[in-house]
Write a structure and sequence with these properties.
- The chain has about 140 residues and is α/β, with parallel strands linked by helices.
- It has a single domain, classed as Rossmann fold (3-Layer(aba) Sandwich), CATH 3.40.50.300.
- The protein has a seven-stranded mixed beta sheet with strand order 1-7-6-2-5-4-3.
- A hairpin with an 8-residue loop joins strand 6 and strand 7.
- Helix 1 crosses helix 2.
- The two termini are about 15 Å apart.
Amino acid sequence: MTKETFSPEETLELGEALGRAAKPGEVYVLIGDLGVGKTVFTQGIARGLDIKEPISSPTFTIVQVYEEGRMPFYHFDVYRIGDVEEMEEIGYEDYFYGEGLSLVEWGDLIQEILPESRKEITIEKDLEKGFDYRKITVREVT
């Protein structure tokens, strides 16, 4: 599935729709350059999970856990990890194979430990189509 959005609000709404459709134990891998709207998209997913608290990128903590929604939400940002051993140290398998939704920003950096079955979400900008334009592709990987 590929969708185009033309505002942060539309990007948020698309994330919200994916959050509403999420099932326990799923892993979403979010791929995109700095500044493409990964955090806005993630805020939408959290909204779709009925999470009310503010969502920000866990750049320095690697994972942020939210438990107030209809299922736990595990928000990873692996941009700053040195190697996958850091993921092992935080017990990533407990999250990836747990009862919540795991969303991994920059997940393409840890391909070797991602579950075989996952959703890969790529967000791209195209300034020729406008400053707020985003092309968002959701792909099932099995």
